[in-house]
Structures are given as structure tokens and as C-alpha cells.
Amino acid sequence: MDKIKNFLFLVVLMGSLVACSIEEAQPLAHKKLVIASDFLYPKDAWYFKEFAKEKKVKVEICHMRADSMEYRLKKDGFNTEIDLVFVHSLISVKQLKNQAFQPIQNDFHEQKLDHLKQIDKNWFIVGRDPFIITYLKDSLEKPTTYRELSADYLWASPDLASLEVMKAHVRYQFQQNKNAKKNGLKKWLRGLKDHRVNYQEGTKTSPNRQLLLMKYSAYFKNKELDRSKKRVLLFPPNTYNDYFAIAIVPQARNYEMTKSFLLFWNEKATSNQFLRRFGIKAWNPYKKGMGFYISPTEILALLS
Questions:
Q1: What is this structure's pTM?
Q2: CA distances from 14 to 11, 27, 136 (A)
Q3: Distance separating alpha carbons of residues 152 and 239, to the nearest angstrom
Q4: Same fold for the domain at 31-128+241-297 and the one at 130-234?
């Protein structure tokens, strides 16, 4: 009888230990950060391996367009697995204008996220994406400003959709100039359209030789262009920018982890080596009277 009792006690004890082990392992199994992005893919999770290792968290990326994000978040409600949305353009931010995002306490933002900029409806600007002009070194076509593309040169772009952000910059500048006439704005934009030609996809043996207008990130991701040692990248003196942005999903399952991710990005926000992986330029805080600047909020308001 004693042997039976001892055996039963041992079974109960082992069962309780196994249950405890499962219970302790359970949170670790669900410790992940899910990012929905319109430019990152699942394989790009390795960019954040340093963060994943430090926080002992698995980073998952769901690639989808902004309109799909809105549909998914609305459908899932507070049951969504997505913690963060990470987009590559103010156009995407505009498309998600009807989606609410989690506010961040002012003290956390102001004291710990000094390299990020908070804008419309709880979005964080995490880097800028300049519109560049690029041409071959031996080319006769060497403009120095965007305006010249509207009057003096034929140009092409593999990145036409993003030019809506550039046009918003132009609209804003005309609005701020009281002496500018409306027909001047129309002439500027019409000229830009009239001087555009179709983009020609290049190859290794026959690279593209056109004068191009595009975003820096699009150039960086275009391997045929990025490999070319003959191309000049021009950042005009008064550079127009698009922006990469992050927002936290309401009631994110891993809310504290999303804040940790923002802190991680804030630490990397001045590292060109880290940012170049994404085709991002550092966000430089604007100082009044220094340089040229149009607020991302102003651009958002002018996007159709």
C-alpha cells in the first residue's frame, strides 16, 4: 500500500512540475512583436535581430498595402495580432487617416524619443526619404533644381506614385508665397507632367541612361541603378522629402514591447549604416532660421 501511495505521490508531483514548466514557457511562446508594413517583408525581420536578441522577442513582419492594413485592423478590432504599422510614405499615412492609433504619453515622447517626430494622429516620423535627381556623370543633362525638370529637361521616374508628395511641397510653397499666382502653380505642375517620358527598365548589359526623379529609398532598392558607379545622386539645395512613419495599434498585445521598439529605433535614428538598409535618411530636427523645411503635417493636409 505504501508503495502505491508513494508512486501516486510521485506521479502527482511530476505532473505539477510539468504543468509549471508549461505555464512558465507559455508567455515566452507568445512573446513576439508583429509589424505590418508596406515595404518590409517577412525575410526583413533579420534587420531587427539585435532588438530581438536583447528583448528575447520574435519579430514578425506582415507585408501588406495601407488599404489592406486598414481593412485588417477594422475586421480584427481589439483581437488583432498586429502591434505596429510601419509605412514608407506620407501617402500611406493619409490612406490610414480613418484608423485610430494608440497615443503615447507626452513625457515618454519628449524625454526618450528625441530623434523621432510625432505628427498627425499619433504617428511617429522615423526617417526622411529625399526626392533625388540622378543622371550619368557624362550626361549633358545636369539640372540642379526640381523646377528645371518642369521647363528645361526631359526626365523619367520608376516611382511615379510617390511624386504626389513632391507636388504637395510645390502647392505648399505657392500657398505661402503671397505674390505667387495660381496660374504659376498650374504651369509648374503641367510642365513637370509634359516633360516626363516613360521610364526604361535597364539591364546589366544595357543600364538605364535616363535623367531620373525618384525617392532615395526607391533608388537604393533598384539594384540595377544602385550598382551603377557612373550615376550622380543630386540632393537639390532645397530638398523635398517624403517620410517613413510608425504607429502603435490600439490595445496592442505587446504595448510595452512596441514602446521598446520605438526606443530601439530612436537609438539607431542617427546611424547611417543602420538606416541605409531601408533607404532612409536621418530625421534632423529643424532649427528655426536654419535651412529649408516644410512640416510633414503640412504636406499631409495637401495630399489628395
A1: 0.84
A2: 5, 21, 73
A3: 19
A4: yes
